[in-house]
Amino acid sequence: MGDRTHAHTGAAGRAATAGRPASVRNVVLVGHSGSGKTTLVEALALTAGALNRAGRVEDGSTVSDHDAIEQRRRRSVQLSLVPVEWDGCKVNLLDTPGHPDFVGELRAGLRAADVALFVVSAAQEADAVAETTRAVWEECAAVGMPRAIVVTHLDTARTSFEEMTRVCGRIFGHDAPDAVLPLYLPVHGPEGPDGHAPLTGLTGLLTRRILDYSSGERREAPPSGDRWEPLREARDRLIEGIIAESEDETLMDRYLGGGEMDLTTLVDDLERAVARGSFHPVLTAAPAAEGARQGVGTVELLDLVTRGFPSPEEHAPPAVMTPDGTPRPAPVRDPAAPLVAEVVKTSSDPYVGRVSLVRVFSGTLRPDDTVHVCGHGLTRPDGEASPNHGSDVRVGALSAPFGGQQRPLDRCVAGDLACVSKLGGAETGDTLSDDGDPLLMEPWVMPDPLLPLAVRAHGKADEDKLSQGLARLVAEDPTMRLEQNQDTHQVVLWCMGEAQTEVALERLRGRYGVQVDAEPPRVPLRETFASRTVGHGRHVKQSGGHGQYAVCEIEVEPLPPGSGVEFVDEVVGGSVPRQFVASVEKGVRTQAARGLAAGNPLVDVRVTLLDGKSHSVDSSDAAFQTAGALALREAAADTRVELLEPVARIGVLVPDDYVGAVMSDLAGRRGRVVGTEQSTGERTLVRAEVPEIEISRYTVDLRSLTHGTGRFDRAYARHEPMPPHLANRIREAQENGTKVS
Q1: Alpha-carbon torsion 284, 288, 292, 298, what sign?
Q2: Alpha helices in 400-494 (DSSP H)
């Protein structure tokens, strides 16, 4: 950012290290899919000297996308850490997937970082930038996360930095448009035959220097008078924005008085304003040309990271407490303080086993240390603590990841990140602290997965491997949830969307060697009686020795929803001996659980035992159980049995422009809109009740309907009668063993 000679301090093949929090910068790159995050990380690593040659997303050769699935799909599907060194600082670049299905990886990156760098493509439609990125920006704003913006793809035709800066100001700075301003303006070369002028350099508004990359090497020069004058207004606005957001009254007085603005003071105020989360500088960057060491804007971006972004010392850590919930003072960001660290990501290595990416907030983590593991059960669907929580474990080797490599580290100080092998059963979200003083960090929120997928082992040999593989998948990605559905007897993997589902199946088959079949999840249906009726159960058999004799008379009547199955004994005169009344009840309940028409459990009925007959020798517990079941089946044959379907209570949050389309779509799903509420940012919350059988793929359909802007939550409301024509179709399908479309 200043007028100085730049030299990288990284070295390809060597692990970047940090000795103190002030020399660490943790930067997470955020942006929609295709915005250029991975390419930008590659360009920054090349400029910093961590790479000798930049890879390409198109051929799967980037350092970030080292997983085989990423290389095949040409898309990031997991968080990756690329540490580099620049100007005496260790810079941890956290590259996140842009696809919304992998939001868990994004959340992990946000937790590990101190600054969010929003990557916006100038080649993308302005509306798409707002739709896919605004929610993350608002989430960062809510917790005071410092943010900056990088505009990419200015080297493509029909793109405009000025237009994208205005878009970013409107979307991200709607409350304070002067808080989103460029630090550099692009310089373009002569127009080509296609009318496109290539990006050849930058003009620094603070430094008043031209940074020319046209020769393949970065050269600095002062601008000529005729080129600088049109930029004076932009520079004045930038300085006013920095001073206002940093609240430097002394510098403001000097500026208003016409005094000269010292560059060092301006940079210090810029860093203060960014650290406060109130000012968001805009830059541009482009990858290096073939054979060049530096891409346009990469040096300037690294300078901003090291000189204008806050260190871990300036970013407030999450709150901590004791395991019983007693608040404790915030962690001291000092390598000599007691240890407080957190597992922000868990992955599996085929050779090393489970590997934990750990952010150290206080103290120093070293190999062979004994640490206490404490957690909230972030990855467990039941919310209960892991059996490994509350235990002491010995830390294995520490390493710094770089692509597919793990470079050894001898320590990880407060503010830094490291990978830890053999950390017992520690899960994502778990807190690591000194074994003599166990602590627990404030949990971070993960969205609920809403797309179900039923999976089963292809053969008997795969059954054990399937359960192990699914457990590892859920441990690696907390946005997945595993459910053993007791009603449908299916193993259901809940995911964020189709892309995550495809990756999960690919990992099961490739990484864990499980031949797995996917099938549509079944909705747990119920049955109930539509009206009062009676049933007669007679079980009489005689065949050598003791026979079987049991007769019972029952009455069945419907009850309100949620009542379950009630059993009432109204036998008089001992027609059914006391010891066999419980047998009749057991037979009735067993048959109710088994179902009547098509195997769906019977609920919300009262069964009254009215009368019966017994034999002094041939009556038995088993005979009266059978008679009770027969009586219930006969009662069902004499009345209409209703099929009950589960109904979900959902809340759909969408931009106002899509409210009509969403409500029309819900009506087509037999949904009932129960109300709407106006939300922030010109959005509306639509509340509705919809049969669950109609929304098994709603997360995919809503994303398509609203172009990625809508999101929803769901909760079970109740079971209620299904329309007769649909019930008949489903009964026929269940009886024939076919899928219901």
Answers
A1: positive
A2: 463-476
Tokens linked to 95: 């590259």
Q: Positive or negative CA dihedral for 620, 625, 630, 636? A: positive
Hey, what amino acid is at 200?
Answer: T
CB atoms within 10 A of CB 101: 24
Q: Are 60 and 71 in contact (CB under 8 A)?
A: yes
Give per-residue pLDDT as tens, 61-109: 888 888 888 888 888 889 999 999 999 999 999 999 999 899 999 999 9
> Can you tell me the distance from the alpha carbon of 708 to that of 354, in angstroms, rounded to the nearest whole number?
34
Q: CA-CA distance, 272 to 266, in Å (whole number)?
A: 10
Other C-beta atoms lying within 10 Å of the C-beta of residue 405: 12
- Helical H segments across 276-327, by residue range: 298-308
Model confidence at 53: pLDDT above 50: yes
> 263-275 and 298-308 are packed helices; what angle lies between their axes, rounded to 10 degrees?
70
List pLDDT tens digits, range 648-706: 999 999 999 999 999 999 999 999 999 999 988 788 999 999 999 999 999 999 999 99
Q: What values do phi and psi take at 153, rounded to 5?
A: 60, 30
Look up residue 656 and give its DSSP letter. Answer: G
pTM for this prediction: 0.87
Return the closest-CA partner of residue 208 out of 177, 180, 190, 231.
231
Strands 526-529 and 641-655 turn out to be antiparallel
Q: How many residues are recorded in the chain? A: 741
| CB atoms inside a 10 Å sphere around CB 637 | 11
Long-range Cβ pairs for the range 597-600 (8 Å, 24+): 597/527, 597/636, 597/641, 597/643, 597/731, 598/730, 598/731, 598/734, 598/735, 599/734, 600/525, 600/526, 600/527, 600/643, 600/644, 600/734
Among the residues of 92-125, which ranges form H helices?
103-112
For residue 252, give both structure tokens. Answer: 């403001």
The single-letter code of the amino acid at 580 is F
- The phi, psi pair for 382, rounded to 5°, reads -90, -5
Residue in 718, 492, 727 with CA at minimum distance from that of residue 598: 727
Helical axes 698-705 vs 659-668, angle rounded to 10°: 140
Residue type for position 55: G
Tell me the pLDDT band of 498, cut-offs 50, 70 and 90: very high
Give the pLDDT confidence score for residue 384 in this predicted structure. Answer: 47
Plot region of 425 (φ>0 → left; ψ -120 to 50 → alpha; else → beta): alpha
